[in-house]
Design a protein that fits this description.
Blueprint: H1 3-14, H2 18-25, H3 29-37, H4 44-56
Length: 64
């Protein structure tokens, strides 16, 4: 799974808007839009934060 799909699936599974997601990740909403568009990728720390958010909410993102 590429990072773009991972971010899209994680945010959708959490049921959050890009603005809500960005607030939890302490980044700008435009960063989330760029990750989801595939024009940039999140840092390793952000990816780990997304994984932790999903884990805390007992959401499993399946990697194919």
């Amino acid at each position: 799974m590429n990072t773009r799909i991972f971010v899209l699936k994680a945010r959708a599974s959490l049921g959050m808007t890009a603005e809500q997601f960005s607030e939890l990740l302490d980044c700008a909403p435009r960063s989330v839009y760029r990750w989801e568009a595939g024009t940039s990728i999140p840092s390793g720390d952000i990816v780990l934060s997304i994984i932790k958010l999903c884990k805390d909410k007992e959401i499993e993102i399946k990697v194919l």
